[in-house]
Each structure stands twice: as structure tokens, then as C-alpha cells.
Design goal:
By secondary structure, the protein is mostly beta strands. It has one helix at 74-83, and strands spanning 3-7, 10-22, 25-36, 41-47, 57-59, 64-70, 88-92, 100-102. It is built from one helix and eight strands.
Amino acid sequence: MAKHNFLVEKYQITLGDHSSTWGGVTVTARGIVACFGEHLRVLFYFLPAGAAIPDAMWNEDARVAVTFLPISDMAPFVDVLRNEKPIYGNIDTEAPGESYISTLHEPVGEEEKRGWRR
């Protein structure tokens, strides 16, 4: 089992219908959140309500994990990427469906302060 974690250095959000083929399966996502590290990526494809959710996958050549989720799950991902720092991507190449993003431990009750993050 190969587990990787990496600092998310950049992210990209795509909204609107976007069709892609992964592992021979074509999906049309309503939104995509892509998290980029130095040598790894994790892509979260958010599919329309009621759409079949394909299995997640790992592409060793591209060094990317791709996970498919319902569109209703997109807002928290965007919120974390916009409001927290640092963010880490976590990939298990044996179980790419368990890919996620995370923060470090933070003190309870920590308030976000305007302007200090950037």
C-alpha cells in the first residue's frame, strides 16, 4: 500500500458541464476541484445529482488520483481551499477513493483573521 501526502501548492476550480474519460469511463462533471502539489495531483469530480458514481482511480504515469463525488459535496472543498492554510493532499494509491485534503491540527476556537493569510 503506497500512501502519499503532499502540500497543496495550487488549486483550480472548474464549474459547468465538463466531460472527461477516465479508465474508459466517460463522466460529465458539474464541477471539478484540482489540487496540485510539486509531483502529485488529486482531482475531485463532482457529478450531477442522481448520476452513477464511478470508482476512484490512480494513474501512476500522470501521478494523479481521481475521485468522483456528488455535486452537493463540492462547497466544503472550495471553502477549505479558500480559507485554510496549509492544505495537504492525501492519496492512497491502493485505495484512491480514500483520497482527501486536510489541514494540520489547529487550536480550538481559533478565529480566522482578515488579511493575515496572504
